[in-house]
Please model this.
Amino acid sequence: MKILHLLSTVDPRAGGPTEGVLQSGLSLRALGHEVEAASLDAPDAPHVAGFGLPLHALGPSRGFYGLCPALVPWLKEHAPRFDAVIVNGLWQYHSFGAWKALHGGGVPYYVFPHGMLDPWFKRTYPLKHLKKCLYWPWAEYRVLRDARRVLFTTEEERLLARESFRLYRANEEVVAFGTRPPPADSAALREAFLAKFPQLAGRRIILFLGRIHEKKACDVLLKAFARVRDIDANAHLVMAGPDDNAYAAQMRALAGELGIAERMTWTGMLAGDLKWGAFRTSDLFALTSHQENFGIAVAEALGSGLPVLISDKVNIWREVQSDGAGIVTADTVEGASSGLSAWLAMDPAARDAMRKQALDTFTTRFHVEAMSQDLLRVLRENADLQGGAFSRDQFAGKRALR
Model:
């Protein structure tokens, strides 16, 4: 198959969707399929050249919305080369542009909302939600209504998506989601990480890895750690992620107020061997988010044999809890501190058993191969391929006659 992924950006700082597209695309290419990506990035953006898939950077775009005049003409010209276009994310111009270019045509498009319809945003940012309500009927509602399928990565996400807007219509389907396993050389990865952060040697590391953002409930994690730090003098909290924003500055100040600054390390964003080294060196991965559609970093932690402490607002919490691959708590200080206390008091045999289960859970549920096969199933079932109602070549011919 020939597949085009459409994103607002391939900047890794944007979070899980970029990584998910990359890993899915690499997996599908290894199976012999052709996968390309298009984004609203400027061609000279620093993150464009290093993206691991053939990429069409159609920007520069304008404003937070990402208005990109080149998108619709480019899609109309190039979409007929593909069997399917997959739109990743909502609320920026790439999704509406895909609808403008493709609805009613012969190339089907699919949408991954990636949690962007979760009602948490409605409750937390009511003014932004009001703006979205004005925008919804003539843009994103149509994007979802006319998509061949709207793809959710968990049943939880699918059900929550129905709660944000009264006017909602979508051909829903839940598909597997996952990522690649980590590099195999654990010892070398640990050595590389500790060479960069030697102060962490011998520590019992609780790792947060992701955006330092209000949604991630970083304040909850810091306050919970402050409550339990005396259980083990070697316990150390590592905050790994882009930390050059105002919220990160607030969290640094909060750490000082809580008296835990010396029991913490802020690494900045980690990538490559340093990221995997952080997973391999840590004892527990913690994500106490108020809202999390899937959490690629959770899957990466599990794949590294690292147990997780997550809130019940991370949409894969049921799988983690039922497998015994970690600890699930409420997204509150009380919940997180209770979970951390339980982990710090756990005997070595129980910790080792949870580590083993973490890896088993990744292998059976969140491996990128399962994701690729399930996505192929959906595309093959729904796309108009050769011999179907409308092939790519037929669509190109129809456009030529107009």
